[in-house]
Amino acid sequence: MLQLPEKFRDAIVAHARRDHPDEAVGVLVGREGAPERMVELTNAERSPTGFVPDSGEWLRLHKQLDDDDAEIVVLYHSHTMTEAYPSRTDIRWSANTPGVSWLLVSTRPELGDEVELRSFRIDGGTVTEEPVQLVAGP
How many domains does the chain have? Predict the structure, then answer.
């Protein structure tokens, strides 16, 4: 189960709406599986159908994680035209982020002002949905 502080849910949804119609991407970092802070990343593809984090930002993030003895707990991104479910590309990309939750937010037009938010674990190409519990959090 992903315990997601409400403030991060709100900030992730805001990021997804702000970057729409392109996919938004970012991470929640922390320790021992608990998200402590959010880092928005630039989608270098600037695409409504895919994302690639900016390589410089990705490198700086990993250096900061090493310095802080922290880890990526959640990788989030938006789907702007489809449901919040990992695509084949997401599944392939997940090999680069073992052990993290993949939080997807759909901002597809038919949802109107609503969003669909779901979390998954992806291990060796197997996708397993995990419940999201919103918590007051830090």
Answer: 1
Helix (H, G, I), strand (E, B), or coil: what is residue 97? Answer: coil
Instruction: Give CA–CA dist 44/51, Å, rounded.
Output: 7
Q: What is the pLDDT of residue 98?
A: 87
User: What does pLDDT average to over the chain?
Assistant: 94
Indicate which CATH number applies to the domain containing 125: 3.40.140.10
Contact 72, 45 (CB under 8 A): no
Contact 23, 77 (CB under 8 A): yes
Both tokens assigned to 110: 């038919």
CA distance 130 to 75: 14
Asked whether 93 and 57 are in contact (CB, 8 A), the reply is no
Residue 84 identity (one-letter amino acid): A
Confidence grade of residue 97 (pLDDT, cut at 50, 70, 90): confident
Helix/strand number for the chain, H first, E second: 3, 8
pLDDT tens digits, 51-76: 999 999 999 999 999 999 999 999 99
Name the pTM for this structure.
Answer: 0.94
Domain of residue 32 covers: 2-135
